[in-house]
Specification:
The complex is a heterotrimer of chains A (637), B (268) and C (234). Chain A has helices spanning 15-22, 28-31, 43-55, 93-103, 110-130, 162-179, 245-252, 316-320, 330-342, 359-365, 367-385, 440-462, 473-492, 498-513, 519-539, 551-575, 599-602; strands spanning 35-39, 58-62, 80-81, 155-156, 183-186, 189-197, 200-208, 214-218, 221-224, 257-258, 263-269, 292-296, 313-314, 354-357, 394-403, 406-407, 420-422, 604-609, 618-623. By secondary structure, chain A is α+β, with helices and mostly antiparallel strands. A five-stranded parallel beta sheet of chain A has the order 5-2-1-9-17. Chain C is mainly alpha-helical. In chain C, a hairpin with a 2-residue loop joins β1 and β2. Classes of the chains: A alpha+beta (637), B alpha+beta (268), C mainly alpha (234).
Chain lengths: 637, 268, 234
């Protein structure tokens, strides 16, 4: 298969403009004759549904939550980047583009990233107009902060709830179209298969989570905005319901899956406290702006943090990276935390944590300033751990947070199945091997508000869409498949709960395909996963039936897909014999322990084609060309 | 520690439910409330009993998916906290807890502790938005917003739509939810042009959804996990009274419809 | 959207159809009744005047046949307010029952709102008291009224002899305590219902409500206490 990225050439500044001009338009009167299915209602799916409906298309939008407002975009805390240069501090579209390509460790497509930086400016305008209460200065102008290692202040924020506010903006725009009758909303409905007819995506099969009814929905195009697959690790900062089922089943229908091994670890999460732990809670990394990260110099130092004198503390980030200090990118901060814990200098009961200390910041700025900046995060920390971070140092540890990999898409955000578009975290497009802080919200909204609504018209205008009867064999086949999976899960009647399998898979993935990986470990995981998968299908216990609200059955289907995806992730990680961004292979590091990229062999996106469960996937490469930002070794020293 | 739980079990929206007693013998005080229920569910599955259905998603207190009554208080005893962020250290060994779903005509129970809150979405669809289509926005700094207004708008916008206000309100009123949205948008200059229409539409929708009325009791405010203040309801009242007094906030079509309806009623 | 041409009648229908409209009616009638209660208290306190005839003169002033229209006008307004206040509250109560057909097995109340939650029974008891109070001191159906002259009751004597019955005095005191609760919530609630509210004023409004409620109850309760302790006597 030849991968055509359709990325335009020529001067990068005008690529998107020229590309848009080359796209065919759908006559306004014809737009209402097209129906588009959007799966997912987060920043990407919600904004796309609203915008497509505003343009005049009929939209059917699906989400598994009880309301589109609950998509996990809501949990993003820190902010959203935009190259507004309101602070006159040297920011520009080009700088945001440069930072993103570099931050992604030169594993992303330049054209896409430049477009993202261009659109970032419009996103802020759109969100302000919708009533997103971004933080303001006393003058009434928008406030910005510097975030996640950026040296300019380009991050717009709404307290610690930026994701929530942006999502509510998109949700309100979506509900406006629901009220206008242009969007039909299907909450508590899960996509379980993609319907492909004559090589084109023409619909989806869904399960109504309340009644258990399996149904098919047909349309002219299908858009997936279903988020990432970080929950494969069981413990992650994702919502409990976040899953890979939609993209995985689309992958099984022919969409290539790109760079599955690129996973991002977030350095500032609340550490695990026990076996019962169900998820990890992230605290915005803006905390690193004022907090100092340290561990005791001595191994196994059990004294409380306040009792450890200054000269017995190791502020290891400040020591190793004098110019960036505590603000090094996420992957660097995470890996260093793991390294000091591996040395036995971790703190807390498990030894799997480091301190994030605000003592000096409180002394310097006063408690009220710290409260103003991080009050809600401190409250959250106290609620969860029972410790007061104003009085004692926080304990933090890295956790799986975001997955840069996803379904492969071209410049139009179309996957390798014509008519199947993938937006937001569900695709692989813009972040390369590592995502910068405050860029996920930007990408989700760029795709949903500005890119997809333009590019999808080209596909709709250049194809003919025959009406498909619901009795079409492809529809029937997909429905049967979905019904069979559910029946099989219910009829296994084994002895182990779904969660116990999920935990075991998650542990395996965290240990061997987590923060750092080795060929040996990955091979071990690849030998374990199929056995565990088979055990799952033999021994899983799902009670109840399929014709009712059955949360175990929902989970079981998602975990079944995670087993298959886990294998692909390990395969991809094993295949990529280099370290880059969120993919760190211990064999490939520089003398001082930094990631060693291999541009001569691995400057490509790895897109995998599915050839059946248990069979090796086939690798297709999309070579990456860097005309503007020339690959260099990232250095934050 | 050891807990005794009485949990509302109901198979589906049609069948009747009842309280069922469960013992949870090994509760760790660092668990969240939902993790404690996970442990119970694992036990139930091992015994071959169907697990308790409850809504939850982010478990960070922001998605608004979780929520039920613990001993008659929405989201339990800790103020400003959703059940997913409520930890077991706030309970005593040997305590008996009653877990019930939100109760309101507008929130029918779907199973066990799971209710249908789509009525909230319909309130927003009725008018809880600013009508701006993608692409038509001016520069973000073209609209100045005084910091105080922006902060107050943000206070109101923090609503997570969990429904605790409705569940706790003796009248099952959605006023705090509506007031929060109306205040969030009404405090910003962008939201001003539509505020009459918005309040009239949302209030009408809440009547259609069979939410109760606000009688200024304040239990909603006391259990709101985002600590949204009762003032938002006053703002809604003010907007509504002004819109009805001036007759604004009703489109011409709707006005005719209103007239026809009341004519028809008077003839009956 | 063109602004509406809704006829005033229909506007009123729309207004009252919404619970917020009903609450506004309760607030406006509440203001009228509150004003009356304040006036009534000022009248009552004249019983403490050194001149024992002061309160009787005040009564005669109110009942002057030349001002009968005004008197009956005010009485009609008060009656109308009471009826509207009660009607709206009953309608809201019905709405409440409809909004939650299945109640909780266990429901705890948040302690913040004691006065608010007691409105529904403090209201009816106060209503019953008002009827009793009118029968007692206006119509004279409870105890025989003493008169200075035909159709000119000896208010001071009637009040004092009335409160010398402990049951009457106790009922009066209990009713005034309930009125205190009712007013405490009612006065603040009135601002809330009419949309007068801002984070800066909330504490002030609540304090104002508390002061009014306590002052009115204390002023009125002082009378039976003064009678029973013998401070006031014929």
């Amino acid at each position: 298969m030849q991968l055509d990225s359709k990325a335009p050439g020529g001067p990068i500044e005008t690529r998107w403009d020229r590309h848009r001009f080359s796209l065919k338009l759908v006559n306004p009167a014809n737009k209402r004759k097209h129906t588009v299915i959007v799966v997912g209602s987060g920043l990407a799916g919600g904004s796309a549904s609203a915008t497509l409906a505003e343009l005049g298309y009929n939209v059917k939008c699906f989400c598994f939550q009880d309301s589109p407002r609950r998509a996990h975009s809501i949990a993003a805390q820190g902010g959203i980047n935009a190259a507004k240069n309101y602070h006159n501090d040297g920011d520009s579209i080009y700088r945001l583009f440069y930072d993103t390509v570099k931050g992604g460790d030169f594993r992303s497509r330049e054209s896409n990233v430049y477009r993202l930086a261009q659109i970032s400016v419009n996103i802020i305008d759109q969100c302000v107009a919708q009533g997103v209460p971004f933080a303001r200065e006393y003058s009434g102008y928008l406030d910005n902060r510097s975030f996640g290692g950026a040296q300019v202040s380009r991050t717009f924020y709404a307290r610690g709830q930026t994701g929530q506010q942006l999502l509510l903006g998109a949700y309100q725009a979506l509900e406006r179209q629901v009220g206008a009758g242009k969007v039909q909303m299907f909450p508590r409905t899960e996509m379980l298969d993609l319907i492909v007819i004559d090589g084109k995506a023409r619909g989806i099969v869904t399960r109504d989570l309340i009644t258990g009814k399996i149904e098919s929905h047909l349309a002219d195009a299908v858009v997936l905005g279903t988020g990432g697959y970080g929950n494969i690790y069981y413990l992650s900062t994702n919502a409990k319901g976040s899953n890979a089922t939609a993209i995985w089943r689309a992958h099984k229908r022919g969409a290539l899956f790109a760079n599955p091994c690129y996973t991002q670890i977030h350095p500032t999460c609340i550490p695990v406290s026990g076996e019962y732990q169900s998820k990890l809670t992230l605290m915005s990394e803006s905390l690193r702006n004022d907090g100092r990260v340290w561990v005791p110099l001595k191994r196994g130092d059990q004294r409380p943090p306040a009792k450890i004198p200054e000269n017995e503390r190791d502020y290891y980030l400040e020591r190793r990276y004098p110019s960036f200090g505590n603000l090094v990118p996420r992957d660097v901060a995470s890996r260093n935390a793991k390294a000091v814990c591996d040395e036995g200098r971790g703190v807390g009961e498990s030894g799997l944590a480091v301190y994030l200390d605000f003592r000096d910041a409180i002394e310097r700025l006063g408690r009220h300033v710290i409260r103003e900046r991080y009050g809600n995060l401190f409250d959250m920390y106290e609620r969860i751990t029972g410790e007061n971070p104003y009085l004692t140092a926080m304990r933090i540890f890295p956790a799986i947070h975001y997955t840069m990999g996803g379904l492969w898409v071209d410049y139009n955000l179309m996957s390798t199945i014509p008519g199947l578009y993938v937006i937001g975290e569900a695709n692989f497009s813009d972040h390369g091997a590592n995502r910068l802080g405050a860029s996920a919200l930007m990408q989700g909204l760029a795709d949903g508000y500005f890119v997809l609504p333009n590019t999808i018209g080209d596909y709709l205008a250049s194809n003919k869409f025959e009406a498909i009867p619901s009795s079409h064999p492809a529809v029937r086949e997909a429905e049967t498949q979905v019904t069979c999976i559910a029946r099989r899960l219910l009829e296994t009647k084994g002895s182990r709960s779904v969660d116990s399998f999920h935990r075991e898979l998650g542990k395996l993935m965290w240990d061997y395909c987590g923060m750092s990986r080795t060929a040996e470990g990955l091979e071990h995981a690849l030998s374990q996963i199929p056995a565990l998968r088979e055990q799952f299908w033999r021994e899983v216990r799902v009670l109840g039936n399929g014709e009712e609200l059955n949360q175990s059955l929902e989970k079981a289907g998602r975990v079944a897909d995670f087993f298959e995806l886990a294998e692909l992730m390990c395969m991809d990680a094993l295949d990529r014999n280099e370290s880059c961004g969120g993919h760190f292979r211990e064999e490939y590091q520089t003398a001082d322990g930094e990631a060693a990229r291999d541009d001569s062999h691995y400057s490509y996106s790895a897109a995998w084609e599915f050839h059946g469960v248990g069979n090796a996937a086939e690798l297709h490469k999309e070579p990456l060309v860097f005309e503007y930002v020339h690959p260099t070794q990232r250095s934050y020293k | 520690m050891r807990l005794t739980l009485h949990i509302w079990r109901q198979r589906n929206a049609q069948e009747k439910g009842r309280m069922v007693r469960y013992e949870v013998p090994n509760v760790n005080q660092d668990m969240s409330f939902l993790e404690m229920l996970d442990v119970l569910n694992e036990d139930l599955i091992a015994k071959g009993e169907e697990p308790v259905a409850f809504d939850h998603d982010c478990r960070e207190g922001i998605c608004g998916m979780c929520g039920f009554m613990i001993n008659g208080v929405a989201h339990g005893p800790l103020r400003g906290t959703t059940v997913c962020q409520l930890h077991m250290r706030h309970f005593r060994d040997g305590q008996e807890l009653y877990l019930e779903p939100w109760r309101a005509r507008a929130f029918p129970v779907m199973r066990d502790l799971v209710v249908n809150r789509s009525a909230f979405d319909r309130l927003i669809a009725a008018g809880g938005f600013i009508s701006v289509s993608t692409g038509s926005a001016p520069d973000g700094n073209a609209i100045l917003v005084p910091k105080e207004n922006c902060d107050r708008a943000m206070d109101a916008a923090a609503c997570i739509g969990c429904g605790a206000c409705v569940a706790m309100c003796p009248n099952a009123s959605a006023s705090l939810f509506m007031g929060a949205k109306i205040s969030h948008l009404g405090l910003l200059p962008q939201g001003r042009p539509e505020r009459d229409k918005r309040v009239v539409a949302m209030v009408s929708q809440s009547i259609a959804e069979k939410f109760g009325s606000c009688t200024n009791i304040g239990e909603c405010e006391a259990v709101c996990p985002k600590e949204i203040r009762l003032e938002v309801i006053a703002r809604m009242n003010r907007d509504f009274l002004r819109a009805t007094w001036t007759g604004r906030g009703v489109s011409r079509d709707e006005a005719e419809q209103v007239s026809n309806n009341s004519l028809a009623e008077s003839r009956r | 959207m063109s602004s509406a041409a809704v006829a005033p009648l229909h506007r009123a229908v729309r207004f009252y159809a919404a619970p917020i409209g009903k609450k506004a009616v309760m607030a406006i009638t509440g203001v009228i009744l509150f004003g009356y209660v304040v006036g009534h208290l000022l009248g009552n306190l004249q019983i403490y005047a050194a001149d024992h005839d002061q309160i009787n003169r005040y009564a005669a002033f109110l009942h002057d046949p030349g001002r009968a229209t005004l008197l009956w006008g005010v009485r009609a307004l008060l009656l109308l307010s009471v009826v509207a206040h009660i009607t709206a509250s009953v309608q809201l109560w019905v709405l409440k029952r409809e909004a939650r057909p299945i109640g909780y097995v266990k429901k705890d109340d948040v302690p913040a709102a004691y006065a608010a939650r007691t409105m529904l029974w403090s209201g009816p008891i106060i209503a019953a008291f008002i009827i009793f109070h009118i029968l007692h001191l206006t119509a004279g159906s409870v105890l025989p009224l003493q008169e200075i002259a035909p159709n000119q009751p000896d208010v001071r004597a009637n009040v004092i002899s009335g409160f010398q019955h402990p049951a009457v005095a106790l009922f009066y005191i209990v009713a005034m305590l309930l009125l205190c609760l009712h007013l405490y919530h009612g006065v603040w609630s009135m601002f809330q219902s009419m949309g007068v509210s801002h984070p800066r004023y909330t504490t002030g409004l609540k304090r104002f409500a508390a002061i009014c409620a306590i002052a009115i109850a204390a002023g009125n309760i002082s009378i039976p206490i003064a009678v029973m302790t013998g401070l006031l006597s014929n």
